[in-house]
């Protein structure tokens, strides 16, 4: 009888351990394993010919890619974003305040390859490029 209880306790302990490990793995995958979530930093060409620092914080909320672009003192929330896991293509859109308080709409197209994201941005008749690396 004691042998039977000990065997059941070992089996129960093994099942509990497997369940806990599965839960930890699922939690990690959901929070940081899904590309391109995370913090990216690097630079962009603001149209002046010199490079400026930029960072992008991306996160998944269910199946929706959300984020914020940090350029200088400005933090600009993404109004739209998409990512194609098969091709690595990423698109982002956001608005910024331009001269005279006018709203400037940015369209960003890029490609994620490993821990690097690079591409182009455009608004009105201005365009430039960017390159960021995942921290």
What does this entry show, briefly?
By secondary structure, the chain is of the alpha+beta class. The chain is built from 1 helix and 8 strands.
What are the SSEs and their pairings?
Blueprint: H1 2-32, E1 38-44, E2 52-61, E3 64-71, E4 74-83, E5 89-97, E6 103-113, E7 116-123, E8 126-134
Antiparallel strand pairs: 1-2, 1-8, 2-3, 3-4, 4-5, 5-6, 6-7, 7-8
Care to describe what's here?
- The protein has one helix at residues 2-32; strands at 38-44, 52-61, 64-71, 74-83, 89-97, 103-113, 116-123, 126-134.
- 14% of the residues are buried.
- The termini are far apart.
- The chain is of the alpha+beta class and 135 residues long.
- Mean pLDDT is 82; it is low at 4-32.
- It has two domains: 1-33; 35-134, Calycin beta-barrel core domain (Lipocalin), CATH 2.40.128.20.
- It is globular, with a radius of gyration of 22 Å.
- The protein has an eight-stranded antiparallel β-barrel.
């Amino acid at each position: 009888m004691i042998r039977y209880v000990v065997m059941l306790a070992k089996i129960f302990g093994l099942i509990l351990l497997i369940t806990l490990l599965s839960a930890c793995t699922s939690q990690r995958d959901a929070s940081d394993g899904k590309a391109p979530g995370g913090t990216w930093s690097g630079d962009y060409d603001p149209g002046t010919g010199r490079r400026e620092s930029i960072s992008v914080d991306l996160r998944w909320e269910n199946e929706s890619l959300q984020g914020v672009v940090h350029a200088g003192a400005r933090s600009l929330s993404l109004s739209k974003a998409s990512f194609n896991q098969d091709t690595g293509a990423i698109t982002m859109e956001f608005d910024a305040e331009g001269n005279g308080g006018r709203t400037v709409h940015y369209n960003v197209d890029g490609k994620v390859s490993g821990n690097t994201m690079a591409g182009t941005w455009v608004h009105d008749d201005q365009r430039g490029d960017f390159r960021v690396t995942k921290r």
